[in-house]
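Cont'd.
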Amino acid sequence: MRGFLWILPSFLGVMVFYLLPYADVVRRSFLGAVDNHFVGIENYKTVLGNTAFQLAVKNTFLFTLLCIPVLIVVALFCAVTLYKSKYGGIIKSAFLMPMALPAVSVALVWRLLFHSQGLLNHWLSDMNIAGNDWMNSGSAFWILFISYLWKNLGYDIVLWMAGLAGISSNIYEAARVDGAGEMQCFFYITLPNLKSSLYTITVLSFLNSFKVFREAYLVAGDYPHESIYMMQHLFNNWFRAFSFDKMAAAAVMESVVLLALIMLLQKAWDSKD
Amino acid sequence: MKCGKWRRVIGTLVAVSLICTSLAGCSKGGAGSKENDAQSTGEQAMGRFLEEEVDTGVKFKNIFDMKKLEDGSLRIVGTEEDSGESGVWESMDAGETWKSVYNLPAEVQDRGISWLDYAALSPGGQIVCAICEIVSGGSGTRPVLYLVDKEGKANKMSFELPQENPEEPAGDAEQPETEEGEQQAARMNYISKLYFPGNEWVVLQDGTGTVYQINVSDSSVKYTYELNSDMLGAPLCAVGNTLIVQDAAQALCYDLQTGEQKPSEEILSQSFVENDSFRAIDTLDGGESVYILFQGGLYHYKFGGNVMEHIIDGSINSLGAPAFFPIALTMIDEQNLLVAAEDINASSGTGVCVVKYTYSADTPVKPEKELKLYSLYENTAIRQCINRFQKEHPDLYINYQVALSEENGVTISDALKTLTTEIMVGNGPDVLLLDGMPVETYIEKGVLKDLSALSIESGGSYFENILNAYQGEDGQRYAVPARFKIPMMQAGSKYFSPGEDFNTFMERKDTMVNMPPREVVEKFWYTCGAAWQKEDKTLDQSKITEFLTKLKHAYGEYDSDVENNKTFFAFATKGEGTELVSDVDFSMGNMYLASGTWNTNFGLYKEMEYGLHKAVNEKLENGNLDLMPGQADHVFIPAQVMGISSKSAQPEMAEEFVKYLFSGEAQKIKQFGGFPVEKESFCGMIDGHQYEGKDGGATITFEGEIFEYDTVPTPEEEITKLTELVESLTTPCLQDDVIKETVVEQGEKVLKGEQSPEAGAAAIMQKVNLYLAE
């Protein structure tokens, strides 16, 4: 009983700020937008048949599936390299700089660079290379992709380096005495010992991938090029248009998918442990 | 062990207090809870100035000054509308009744060769009159001062303004408007402001910005105040022994006794800067303290003090109305004051009125009821209506919230999201002015209340076709336009024939030379967009491609110089305020067409100046004015579209206000918002009745050319023609800012040759389809 009392404040917080609002969203997913009349699963049907929703889901999945593995691998490579370097600590801080930059500043630089009459096209034209309307073509996706890597690399490097610091140097010394090379040490000592970090980094990178919307929104507004039209754009626009019915149904579906993914990920990790 | 127990107790207390604090933050009270508490417990602060228009018994064409004299009487110096005679009127009963004291002597009356520009009353009852006199040979005008004593006898003052250097124009200083042409007058010096703060001195400012303090006894200059060059035209006033000059950052005070600058008054400066420009000023204690009128209302400030007291809130009376321009403020005592003002909507019908404010200790400081009205953009017509409606409902305060302004930098998207939140939490507006809001979406989502039971038509005869712009098939009416605009075109027969279709017009060459591409696309969007929407609400790509192809063909090659040649017009009429004409307004192009810069003029027609259109038509070869061609026929633009929130806390009051907006009284208000939907008001707006019985003309100077036209009443057949044209309008334009912005953006690229019409149409479809799919 005493134990329950100690977790009561946190539990109340979770209850008030998460569970009850979530329950309300589930309730609203079965109601009309403003008049709150019961519509059954009509909202779910509407959302699943909505082409904007389909596009947003496709783009969000594509972005996540592409970005997270690349980010994790590149960050691991950088972390291992920096960990061995004498100046790793200083360089690590430099990698963290993009995280400290406000999204608005990043968006302004984007505009300056990637506008159809921006700096990038100007430089290209100086080199007699044809420019492009970067933010209004397929290139927009890759700009967003690089921006995500640039912004989150430092954070993942720090997490990887924390994991690396937890591996005892005795293990490496023993392996080297037994004749193991660098690659063998990496694959048979470093990687297995970083498994627990990988779970945390994957989940955090996944959550951070949603934040890239800020830059996309600030540069391209409510209706960007279709390749970078994400779930957040859709939710944002639905909110403005009082489409709470569709928002609630889509949010419930998204949360179920996310929860399933995280649980699968956790189960996979647990079974390997 | 004991220590551990205390730790647990403290920990528990901290946790409980944190929870309580966070939950308290979620409570409904907020910043205004104290006021709400006071209301809920029945406590209410009392005392408010009530407004009442004074029936002076005189139809004033002009009021130059109004003052309380030392003997307690009130005097007005002005010009009577009917006789055209200028004179002095007096009230001995605090403004209740007025009687003529004398007509100004012939020397200062308008005489053709001279006219009265300014007149200022002294506390002793003397008047100083500034006459503008045409110099012999007609090479310009010069100001002459006369001193009129209390009995009406005039003496010419020997003071003469130094000649302004013809090589150095007066910068931004206000120029006088004369019938003899402004070019000549610009070279002569002139008086721009005149005050008579005591009985000894007159204070005036000339065209160079220099301020002179002149002794009335011998016309000698007592002091000269040389202001900085960046303060030319800066608002100034003289009250008691103080001259106040307002610049962008501060209010400078000068002592009229010594001519020295006084120590800076920080609170006064701050108020002047925050409230923009002051409008009138007066004192009750010889200048120890001042009462100042800003648009926010009446303020009181004691020199050397640290408080600017807000005496009257302008938002609940005429003081804050957009068409109310105070000429003079007269403090009778601390609880009674008069304001003489220009107001086009004044009941006198002459555009000039006197309004009295009386303190009522039994009236609540703030009206008991509050109605929230929301719009994205500032709308002066609705503000004027609010003012009128509040006068009839003194217990009601209409809280008009404008989402977008130059200062706040809020985007439309952000504003709409905030609106959504407020409506959903039950804190939203009662009435919505749906300017740029997604009306169809709001109707579909049930945000708006059905107004069909409001029986708007009972207020008179209306253009039903306009009123029913948003009427559903079931007869329900969720949004109703109170005004409208018409896309019109004017050109010579070489470039345009009345009634011709879009294809024929687009076949013609040189119809859009020198026109900026963005404006061209936007104007044609109004007449074409409505034809693109298919039954399933998606857009027809083939029609958009056709639109862009034909428009590009007619527009021809893009010349980047057209962007540099844009001129911005601001129009002002007595008592109406100033409007910066929109790029898509028809009136924007009148001068371009008359000067031959453009071959056609088209855009949104929202007011009629018959004399101007006639003169332009005469200048063109067989000039015509008719509906603008487009892919859709008989298009109109619903304006001032009103709706009531389905979640309104006070639906009855909201309905009453919306109904009032369609009443004859509100429809007659002229504030640049478009034509009224009520037929009588519509005719009253276009008939040019203000020109009846007067021979007059107007002159417009544009790019060095002078264009003159007669200001004449609109002939009956022209009124009938335009009325019939309005009755024939059947198609409301497609009002969706997201689609419009996309079309204009891509269309501009097409006209500039940056992309093909097909690529432009594809880009529009890509973005718009995404939007429509949501």
